[in-house]
Amino acid sequence: MRASGLPLETEIRVLLCDDQELVRAGFRLILDLEDGIEVVGEAADVAACLREVARTKPDVVLLDIRMPNVDGVEATRRLVAAGSSARVLVLTTFDLDENVCDSMRAGASGLLLKDVPREQLVFAVRAIAHGDALLSTTVTPEAGREIHLLTSSRPCAQQIGSLSEREREVFGLLALGPSNAEIAATLFLSDSTLKTHVSNVLAKLGLRDRIQAIVLAYESGYITPGREVGGHEDPA
């Protein structure tokens, strides 16, 4: 449904991919009532999802992590490999399980629990469409511990070492989950300068978005549960 007076290019096109018809119907009911959001298709399995992405060219794909036959992780990999510009918002009933971490590595831009309030669903779709990344929970030490335990360890020190001192500051703050505006205020930078630093960090580290930055930071030990950025103990 397009809001009156809004040009077509401002409309967010959403594809719903979930094997439960009632779940899709509920999400469609919520999103179709929002100005500037249009549900352009539905799919009950990954094969149909890939076809619908090619047909409808959505901006955001709401993708159930536990789809029949081929799961949401593999679906995300296939979407990225196909060069789709659609951003994937993973839907799960379990916060931060192994498949969720794998989907973030595969290129998903966000994680959302299926039972979130409607306003959080709408916020998530808009945030993902505008290039942000989103976790359904704040990255607390407890959440970070789960990410750290579920992700495979790999040597990343050289990769992170390629960043400038300012870029390492930005990377560390990105991994803690604040918005760009909050990071800019913390580092006393303009919004445009901060965006440039974020783009450079993601490019140098070969990351698609902030979600992958969070995973990399915990995988590499750059941030560890109960510790500050860089592995220093929190002050007592």
Give a brief rundown of this model:
This protein has helices spanning 21-32, 46-56, 72-81, 98-106, 118-129, 141-150, 157-161, 165-176, 180-187, 191-205, 210-219, and strands spanning 12-17, 37-43, 60-64, 87-92, 110-113.
Computed Rg? 18 Å
Distance between the ends: 53 Å
Helix fraction, binned, reads 40-55%
- Neighbour order of strands in the largest sheet: 2-1-3-4-5
Descriptors:
single chain, 236 residues, alpha/beta, five-stranded parallel beta sheet, 11 helices, disordered N terminus, disordered C terminus
Structure description:
- The chain is of the alpha/beta class.
- The chain has helices spanning 21-32, 46-56, 72-81, 98-106, 118-129, 141-150, 157-161, 165-176, 180-187, 191-205, 210-219; strands at residues 12-17, 37-43, 60-64, 87-92, 110-113.
- Helix 8 (165-176) crosses helix 11 and helix 9 (180-187) crosses helix 10 (191-205).
Write the layout of secondary structure elements.
Blueprint lengths: L11 E6 L3 H12 L4 E7 L2 H11 L3 E5 L7 H10 L5 E6 L5 H9 L3 E4 L4 H12 L11 H10 L6 H5 L3 H12 L3 H8 L3 H15 L4 H10 L17
Parallel strand pairs: 1-2, 1-3, 3-4, 4-5
